[in-house]
Write a structure and sequence with these properties.
Chain B is an alpha/beta fold and 267 residues long. Chain B is 36% helix and 21% strand. In chain B, a hairpin with a 2-residue loop joins strand 1 and strand 2. Chain C has a single domain, classed as ABC transporter involved in vitamin B12 uptake, BtuC. Classes of the chains: A mainly alpha (397), B alpha/beta (267), C mainly alpha (318).
């Protein structure tokens, strides 16, 4: 089995499997890259509205396909239908948000549920038609890669690549709008148009991915990779690259696993792979990760407690609270008999001196002092040049 | 030869146990992420004082009030209100948040909002009755807003909204009023109304602690001041505190020398 | 249509629809005002893994384990969203998106891997429910409808829903003040000594309860529609919270009855014999009502605002 997994992962699992895998990877990268922008615009759940709003479009496209004499299962036609009502859904969200008193989250909820309801009504009508191929429509709800043909995979992969290319070409504009809408507008950029382009790409990727992962899980492909990437970097370029990589990685792992194991729906496995990447990022990312952040916060508490304790001891008092007492006791600045130790005396008088210097510095240079954080035990000599420290030591003017 | 024993920290600023201060803070320390906002603050508010909390932006004024109320987590410190813990004294405190902190589109009328100040008195599960509504209206009347009782709060002007908050605080019938920049962005009529109400409640025996931005009016409106810039810089009667030296220490380069001199002169 | 048909097929479905709509619609008022409208969305999606897990643990498709499973999943989801939002410092929409899609994916994998899909649980059903299968057996006409024997055979979902709806209504009446003040101004509520965090947790739990109770009959999407549309419609029409609550109930009832009637009997108007999905149609009707309110509401509707703007422009001195 590991051997088989390896051969699938390395694209040696047969032509069909490899094409489908390549298509899924392209889709993952596309979702990751394009998802970054709505994520940065704090509108991650707009994709929720889009994906649910595609259902009536799919149903209508199917009905049109039948009316034209086909089976209604033409993937391109269904995608076009999905994109059409998806776009309509987005416009409704914008309209509700801009012209009524209802906030965006209520607008998204309204659109996704009402459009989806309409889609279900249409599907229930289609079911009564006994038309050929209607059973395939259900795969749009939950997705299925098993049914993906090589041709469909090529269509999905190709369309994803085009969407990624456009996103990269517009990277600068997207970045400016996502970072500071007002500034971008002041620069003379058409914020509304750039926003629409962003949403258009989102719409495209949702329509492309629907068939593969289903309309609930496609949301994950545009939200989870950027949310994961955000833990690792503060820079837009890297964020896009990393998010695309995470998306692709999820597609690669998820696609391979689902090809290997029976009854493993590809969409769900891809999402779970993405979720695993997210969890690792959330916990272990070096600066923004939860563990690093927790350690930093704990360190600061201890340092601040030590400063508090030593300053109190310098004036002949016990540390003011439990934590500061434990910290100075643990560092051996105080003995069990509430007496200051030799090292404690040195540390306390040094802390008193530091505090005095920082206060003088803050009085004389209030603006500059804002960029330092002396209250958690930063030594003034470590951050200021010696000549300035010397002037602070001197009696005031 | 042993060094002398360290003595309990509480003796640094012993509290008056016989006539407890309306607000007594010891060693209050608050930090956001890893940036301290309030550092080792000791303060005893004078009884029946009208106290202005002043200091530059980012000096921790609002944070201090929120920390006292337990709305932001503290690193260390002990706050007593009339000698008891916050939990015990909660009903004796009224808090006026910054106006921007709530959703003014909320489906409530001015009277509804004022009645919220009575919720503590009404108690769990009991409805707001006619007499509560009448009481709410009388508080609105005291801030000159009786005509607007039924108006949805979003349709009031900024100053009127602030007066609704003031009436709500009055309805709480507190002994300690904590106000977070009530004068920010209000019209002259509202400013007068706020000052009058502050004096009324002070005369009735309450204490008012008010975050204030406008240094020009501190001496006119208040009789005590607490100057804060992360550390407590100074506190005391307005005339003693608004000095060139102390303002210089708190504001430094953020106020022009001439301005500081003018304010210090006004006190 | 005979009386027996109406009583055994249509009436229970209409009642289930109305009760689901009412219980979710009432709670929706607070979700919309708290900017948590999409919590309803997240919770109804995570009910799927909960139901599957409930089935796997209990081994039956009895209601209680499935409902418990969905409740637990909803509470876990709400907790995870909060943890990720705080610890990861992510915007709440993104945190929600991460959590509910992941849990939904887990649900699908469980479903496929364990063969639960053969045991009358399927994801599509969970998405759009099956209102039409709520039947009142053992009733033959109006005469015996109120006999003890007939009443004892009322559909189980109907009884569950009636209980949940009553409980929610009682909760809102009893804690109206507390819900109102903690929704409007959490700072004031805390300073009045109210347990603000507990209130929001309880609200989420009750939302989960309502979602789960409504879920098996009407499906998750209709649940979302009912959390949002009635409240949003009422929000357009009034500035008083109590009136908003009443209006949302009215909208929910109209949507429930209207949607069912349109779905069941609408097709006959154009000569079709088959009926349409009632759950979907109810959502559509709720959406239409909301659209009407957004356009034509007396004060906040787009039309009246446009007219006001026009008259104000005319009033300006030339």
């Amino acid at each position: 089995m590991p051997g088989e997994l390896f051969s699938i992962l390395t694209f040696q699992g047969g032509y069909n499997t490899s094409v489908v895998l390549a298509g899924v990877i392209a889709l993952g990268i596309g979702g990751g890259v394009i998802g970054v922008f709505s994520f940065l615009r704090k509108r991650a759940l707009i994709s929720d509205a889009i994906s649910h709003a595609t259902l009536p479009g799919i149903a209508i496209a199917f009905l049109i396909g039948i009316a034209l004499g086909g089976t209604g299962r033409n993937l391109a036609l269904l995608m076009a239908g999905a994109a059409t009502t998806g776009a309509l859904g987005v416009l409704c969200v914008q309209w509700i948000r801009d012209y009524t008193r209802l906030p965006e989250d209520a607008a998204i909820g309204t659109v996704l549920s009402v459009f989806f309801g309409l889609g279900i009504v249409l599907l229930s009508h289609i079911q009564t038609l006994q038309a050929a191929g209607q059973a395939g429509l259900n795969s749009f709800l939950l997705g299925s890669t098993a049914a993906l043909t090589a041709g469909e995979a090529q269509l999905i992969g190709g369309a994803s690549l085009v969407a990624i290319l456009i996103a990269l070409l517009l990277l600068k504009e997207f970045g400016a709008v996502a970072f500071d809408e007002g500034f971008a507008a002041a620069q003379g950029w058409r914020v509304t148009r750039i926003d629409l382009a962003m949403i258009g790409l989102l719409l495209a990727i949702v329509a492309i991915g629907l068939k593969t992962v289903g309309l609930v899980l496609i949301i994950a492909l545009v939200i989870i990779p950027p949310a994961s990437a955000r833990f690792w970097t503060e820079r837009l370029g890297r964020l896009v690259a990393l998010s695309g990589t995470f998306g692709g990685l999820a597609g690669w792992l998820g696609g391979s696993l689902s090809a290997l194991l029976p009854d493993m729906p590809a969409g769900a496995v891809i999402v779970l792979a993405a979720a695993a990447i997210f969890t690792i990022s959330l916990l272990f990312a070096p600066r923004r990760g939860v563990i690093a952040w927790g350690i930093r916060r704990l360190r600061m508490r201890v340092r601040a407690a030590s400063v508090r304790g030593l300053l109190a001891m310098a004036d002949g008092y016990l540390p003011p609270d439990g934590l500061s007492y434990r910290v100075v006791r643990w560092r051996g600045y105080i003995d069990g008999d509430a007496r200051i130790t030799e090292s404690g005396r040195t540390a306390a008088s040094e802390m008193r001196r530091q505090d005095r210097l920082w206060q003088t510095y803050r009085t004389r240079h209030p603006e500059a002092a804002l960029s330092f954080n002396p209250l958690t035990g930063t030594r003034i000599e470590d951050v200021l040049p010696a000549d300035i420290v010397a002037t602070l030591e001197a009696p005031s003017r | 030869m042993n060094p002398p024993r360290l003595i309990p920290f509480e003796t640094r600023q012993p509290r008056n146990e016989i006539a407890p201060s309306p607000l007594s803070i010891r060693g209050l320390t608050v930090a956001y992420d890893d940036k301290p906002a309030v550092w080792d603050l000791d303060y005893d508010a004078p009884d029946r004082g009208l106290i202005a909390v002043i200091g530059p932006n980012g000096a921790g004024k609002s944070t201090m009030i929120k920390a006292m109320l337990g709305l932001v987590p503290t690193l260390a410190g002990d706050v007593r209100v009339f000698g008891s813990t916050l939990r015990q004294a909660r009903r004796r405190i009224a808090y006026i948040p910054q106006r921007t902190s709530v959703d003014w589109d909320f489906p409530a009328s001015a009277e509804d909002v004022v009645a919220m100040g009575l919720y503590g008195e009404i108690g769990w599960c009991r409805p707001v009755r006619r007499r509560h509504r009448e009481a709410a209206r009388s508080y609105l009347d005291r801030v000159g807003m009786a005509d607007f009782a039924g108006r949805q709060i979003g349709q009031l002007s900024g100053g009127q909204q602030q007066r609704v908050f003031l009436a709500r605080a009055l309805a709480q019938k507190a002994d300690l009023y904590l106000m977070d920049e009530p004068f920010a962005g209000v019209d002259a009529a509202t400013e007068r109304a706020i000052v009058n109400v502050m004096r009324e409640v002070r005369d009735a025996g309450a204490t008012v602690l008010c975050v204030h931005h406008d240094l020009q009016t501190v001496a006119d409106y208040f009789d005590h001041a607490l100057i804060l810039n992360v550390h407590a810089i100074a506190h005391g009667a307005v005339d003693d505190v608004l000095t060139e030296e102390l303002l210089q220490r708190a504001y430094g380069g953020r106020l022009a020398e001439t301005e500081i001199r003018a304010i210090a002169g006004s006190a | 249509m005979t009386a027996a048909d109406f009583l055994s097929i249509d009436l229970p479905a209409i009642l289930v629809a109305v009760l689901s709509a009412t219980s979710c619609g009432l709670l929706g008022n607070f979700l919309v005002l708290r900017r948590q409208a999409l919590i309803g969305d997240a919770i109804s999606h995570v009910a799927l893994p909960g139901i599957v897990a409930g089935f796997l643990i209990a081994g039956t498709i009895a209601t209680l384990p499935l409902m418990l499973g969905a409740m637990v999943a909803a509470v876990i989801a709400a907790g995870l969203i909060e943890i990720i939002r705080r610890a990861g410092r992510l915007e709440s929409g993104a945190a929600m998106g991460v959590v509910f899609t992941t849990m939904f994916a887990i649900g699908i994998v469980l479903l496929e891997q364990t063969g639960a899909s053969n045991a009358h649980i399927d994801a599509e059903h969970a998405l759009y429910g099956n209102l039409e299968s709520t039947l009142w057996l053992g009733v033959t006409g109006w005469d015996d409808a109120l006999t003890w024997e007939a009443l004892s055979q009322l559909p189980r979902q109907l009884i569950t829903l009636a209980g949940v709806t009553a409980a929610i209504a009682i909760m809102i009446v009893a804690f109206y003040k507390e819900l109102k003040v903690s929704t409007f101004d959490a700072g004031l509520a805390a300073s009045l000594g109210l347990p603000v965090r507990t209130i929001s947790t309880v609200l989420i739990v009750v939302v989960a309860l309502a979602a789960v109770a409504a879920f098996e009959a009407v499906g998750s999407i209709l649940v979302i529609a009912m959390f949002i549309c009635p409240a949003a419609t009422a929000r357009m029409l009034t500035d008083s919270l109590s009136r908003q609550l009443w209006l949302s109930v009215l909208v929910a009832v109209i949507a429930g009855v209207g949607g069912y009637v349109l779905a069941a009997f609408g097709p006959q108007f154009w000569g079709d014999t088959d009926s349409l999905s009632a759950a979907g149609m109810i959502a559509v009707v709720a959406g239409l009502l909301q659209t009407a309110a957004m356009i034509a509401a007396p004060r906040y509707g787009i039309l009246s605002r446009a007219i006001r703007r026009r008259t104000r422009q005319l009033d300006l001195p030339a």
